[in-house]
Design brief:
The protein is mostly helical. The chain is built from eight helices and two strands; from the N terminus they run H-H-E-E-H-H-H-H-H-H. The chain has a two-stranded antiparallel sheet. It is globular.
Length: 227
C-alpha cells in the first residue's frame, strides 16, 4: 500500500503532507503530555514493530504485493496519537533508507497508514469492544475487525488518490502525467487484495498479538486503552 514516487503529482503530495502537519503536531503534543516516561520505550518498540511487519509483503494476483501495517494494534495498546508517531517514523525510515514508498509521497503514505488506519481501526475496536473485559473473546474479535476496517479504509484512501490523478493532471494531448488508472480501475485493484488477503492478515496479526500482550503484560493495554 506504499505509494511510490511518481504516482501522485507534487501538488497532491504537498496537499496531503500539509494535511498531516496538524496531525503530527497534535500527536506530538499528546505524546508529550499523555505518555508516561516509563512507557516511552513502548513507542519506540511500536515503531520497530510497524516497520518490520510492513516489510513482509504478500504476493497478490495482479503482480504486486500487499502487507499488514500494525497501526491499529499500536492504537489499541498505546492510544491512537502515539500510533500516529510510531507508524510515521516507520514509514519515514522505509522511504529514506529502503525505497519502500516515495520520499515525496511520504505525507500521503502517512495520511493513509499513520492517520486514517489507526484512528478508523481504533474507533471501530472501541465501538465493538464496548465495556467487555480486556481479555475477553469479544475484545479480541473487535481488535481484529478494527484492524481489518482500518487497513481497508487506508487502502481505499490510497486508491482514491491514485484514481484522481488522471482526472486532474494530464498533458495537452490528454495523456495522464502520473498514475494512469482512473477510479474505476484503482479502487478495485487496491481493495480486492486488501479485502481478501491483506486485511485478513492484518486482523489475524492484530488479534493474536493483542492476545499475547494481554496474557503477558495486560497493564500495557489497560494503560493505553481509551486514550
Amino acid at each position: 500500500m506504499h505509494i511510490p514516487e511518481g504516482y501522485l503529482s507534487p501538488s497532491t503530495c504537498l496537499t496531503l503532507g500539509a494535511a498531516m502537519l496538524p496531525v503530527w503536531y497534535r500527536a506530538t503534543a499528546a505524546v508529550k503530555t499523555g505518555l508516561e516516561a516509563a512507557r516511552a520505550p513502548f513507542l519506540a518498540m511500536g515503531a520497530v514493530f510497524s516497520f518490520l511487519i510492513m516489510m513482509f509483503n504478500i504476493p497478490i494476483p495482479d503482480g504486486t504485493t500487499a502487507h499488514a501495517a500494525g497501526g491499529v494494534l499500536l492504537a489499541i495498546v498505546l492510544g491512537p496519537w502515539p500510533a500516529v508517531i510510531a507508524v510515521s517514523v516507520a514509514l519515514l525510515i522505509q522511504a529514506l533508507f529502503f525505497g519502500d514508498g516515495g520520499v515525496l509521497a511520504f505525507g500521503a503514505n502517512a495520511f493513509n497508514l499513520a492517520f486514517i488506519m489507526p484512528f478508523a481501526g481504533y474507533h471501530t475496536y472501541r465501538l465493538l469492544a464496548g465495556g467487555s473485559p480486556p481479555a475477553s473473546r469479544r475484545r479480541l474479535i473487535a481488535a481484529g475487525l478494527g484492524a481489518y476496517v482500518g487497513l481497508n479504509l487506508g487502502a481505499l484512501a490510497a486508491a482514491i488518490e491514485f484514481g484522481l490523478q488522471p482526472l486532474l493532471f494530464t498533458a495537452a494531448d490528454g495523456t495522464p502525467l502520473y498514475c494512469p488508472y482512473g477510479l474505476e480501475v484503482a479502487i478495485p485493484a487496491m481493495l480486492i487484495p486488501h479485502l481478501t488477503l491483506a486485511g485478513v492478515a492484518e486482523a489475524t496479526v492484530t488479534a493474536l498479538a493483542l492476545k499475547y500482550i494481554l496474557k503477558t503484560s495486560p497493564d500495557i493495554v489497560a494503560a493505553g486503552d481509551g486514550r
